[in-house]
Amino acid sequence: MDIIKxxxxxxxxxxxxxxxRKIKGKGIFFALKGENFNGNKFVDNALKAGATYCIxxxxxxxxxxxxxxxxxxxxTLQDLAIYHRNQLSIPIIGITGSNxxxxxxxxxxxxxxxxxxxxxxxxxxxxxxxVPLSILEINSKHKVAVIEMGANHLNEINFLCNIxxxxxxxxxxxxxxxxxxxxxxxGVIKTKNELYEYIKRSxxxxxxxxxxxxxxxxxxxxxxxxxxxxxIYKGKPLVNDDYIEIKYKNQxxxxxxxxxxxxxxxxxxICVGEHFMINLNNIKKAIKNYLxxxxxxxxxxxxxxxxxxxxxxxxxxxxxxxxxxxxxxxxKNKLCILGDMLELGNYSHEEHLNIIKIVNNLxxxxxxxxxxxxxxxxxxxxxxxxxxDYLKNNPIKxxxxxxxxxxxxxxxxxxxxx
Length: 418
Prior knowledge:
By secondary structure, the chain is of the alpha/beta class. The protein has 15 helices and 20 strands. A hairpin with a 4-residue loop joins strand 15 and strand 16 (306-310).
């Protein structure tokens, strides 16, 4: 069956599924395959749960009229998303970056939603499956969309751009992330820059951090709007030991975000909001009302301590930025609990050692968790300790604690002990 016929089936319900357990009502189930799963095995479950049609790539399963055989279910899903995108005429903002892309996506979408029907990527559905699913959720009522794009290897951003066809582009920053897949920082730069290159080819518009020299260089000769301490839209951070506060156009803009680096995420949201002519009062309200969740820069007050939980993910650049910001605050009894940074490949030892040097230089009290930190030369730790040997015999009370590490470290589980 060709993609036009499948698209006509899609339009009947405007719903697709890739997990048979999450089917609620009518729609098309795409039987996808991975290293540890095969959706073709769950076609019967999908039909029983209410799926109207199933797309499969194992011919023997296509034994009913509503089970449609294709050569590759994933490619068909992606092709369907491309076809759907070609029917849409709304602005689509593509956003990527080593750090801050999800927070920025959420801030931008909250600002736009204050006046416009805006679709934005749900959760972190930002890969070769998530982006097509996101595009397929956009309907005729939406007037703008914000699509997050992640990558851990070369050419992935370009691939996602060809699906989502962004009219506007944002790279929040470029740092040392997923080095195992990219091999080195040059690979990260090249891949992130694929978004800028797409926008250049398509005649779109960029939003660029005016203080980021690399992004300024990469965006030369592309139409752009700048933001930051200087630029077309400029503001300045105000001194605040709790949440980030910004002075912009002689007005104070409050947030519930932690970390000095969040200044640029907020200024980006202001910049995009201004460009789409959102009233400044609505921009202010949207930023003030945005509450981080999913282990991203959350403040948790327990009976014993105040915890800054930033354990959704970690890479060398985000870890460094958060540690430095934390050290600059006037909290009493500061403590860092730092977990491993993963997917760094051959750079893991070097990058973990660099973090140890940073906390040593800042004279921060630190507990390290994980095999990567423990494998670094123990001489570098000076008086640092490890969680497993520490917390059992040393209950922590009356501290402000930074919890940060990669997602699989699950540091949020420690909050019940703190």
